[in-house]
Amino acid sequence: MINNSQEAEKKWRSCKPRTNIFFLKTHKTASSTIMNILFRYGESHNLTFAFPTIKYHYDYPNLFSTDNVLGFSTEKEQNYNIMCHHMRFHLPEVEKIMPSDTFYFTILRNPVTLMESAFSYYKDSSSFIRTTDIETFLKNPKRHYNKWMYDSGYAKNLMTFDLGINHNGPESEKQFKLLWRAVDAVFDLVLIAEYFDESLVLLKDALCWTLDDVLSFPLNLRSDRSRHVLSAQTEEKIKSWNQLDWQLYMYFNHSFWSRVENFGRERMEKEVEELRRRRAQVSEKCLDDQVEPHQLRDKSMVPYQPFSARILGYNLKRGLRREAYRLCYRLVLPELQYSELLLTKHLKRRVHLP
Predict the structure, then answer these.
(1) Which of the 8 DSSP states describes residue 298?
(2) pLDDT digits (tens, 9 = 90+) for 45-70
(3) Are 287 and 217 a contacting pair, CB within 8 Å?
(4) 4, 187 in Cβ contact below 8 A?
(5) Is the pTM of this model over 0.90?
(6) Inter-CA distances, 79 with 50, 68, 96, 255, Å
(7) Rounded CA gap, 51 and 49, in Å?
(8) Considering just the CA atoms, what is the radius of gyration of the chain in Å?
(9) FRET partner for 271 with CA separation of 20 to 30 A, picked from 66, 197, 294, 332?
(10) Quick one: which of 107, 70, 94, 85 has its CA closest to 36?
(11) What contacts 24+ positions apart, CB below 8 Å, involve 64-71?
């Protein structure tokens, strides 16, 4: 008798790789690593990216508009395959850009660790700049938080805000259900940052890609010096302050594991093990170490450094051959530099089009 896992695997082997992809890049959720995967796949398969008019985001934190896409015009036919830069999601406008068969996905993270990370990364935002630590902010958040400020989303329900939903909205069981349904109706897959490798396997399966296509190293990681250990009391305050995000995360964490069950637990364990084996193999081939910015040998590989956090980068092994270097370099190339590289290639291609 064939079980669900075997049927799913048989179906995957006969499917066609998806190339029209929309990724909502939520903040501080391991989304930079996902973006690197999409950059590499799109580059290697000669796919077309929808680049923002502003270098690295679609006029965030304003709601997305077609005006934010470089070169887009309703007067001429254009084909975009991948959209993945930061935006505040607005489906009606996104649908004007992306094909009707586009695969939509995003990623969520536990709001507790997300807010601790956001406080460090966005310390210069209007809500956090006058507070010494996250505990001080949470003692009386309304003293520091102004919901009308353009950057208020960094300090409250950041994922809800990125999804284009009112992050200061009412909190009730009915509202939570409306939130779940709205996200569920749009996104074909919601990944969970805490189960990153399992998420990559589900993504690979949904897109009909291979494990090598989703192979990655963690990017945009903070140094330990930038991290802050939270008390149990502070964690509960974060959940309460970010209740919309918390309810969103709890719902999709549950649905994520339902999806894993359908995929097959045993099959999942095998694929995660294989993914980690390949990552370790490529790490041994490519990497010397992961270091603080001042320790990077190639200064062009320094990741963006925010107000107070220190973002780590990678030193590649010396003496790599050309093809190996190309792979290794792109695996660890920081988000802004990779986006710049792809944009340059895109503009050159446009110049040479008939």
Answers:
(1) S
(2) 999 999 999 888 999 999 999 999 99
(3) yes
(4) no
(5) yes
(6) 9, 16, 11, 32
(7) 6
(8) 21
(9) 332
(10) 85
(11) 64/88, 64/89, 64/90, 64/93, 64/94, 64/164, 65/90, 65/93, 66/93, 66/96, 66/97, 69/97, 70/343, 71/350
| Residue 234 near residue 134 (C-beta atoms within 8 A) | yes
Domains of the chain and any CATH numbers: 4-352 (3.40.50)
21, 84 Cβ separation under 8 angstroms: yes
**Sheet with 103-108, edge to edge strand ranges:** 82-83, 21-24, 103-108, 189-192
Tokens of residue 39, six digits: 């950059």
Token duo for residue 11:
């179906």
Per the CB < 8 A criterion, the answer to whether 84 and 49 are in contact is yes
The 10s digit of each residue's pLDDT in 178-187 is 999 999 999 9
Query: In the numeric block, which tokens belong to residue 44?
Result: 């290697």
- What's at 155, amino acid-wise? A
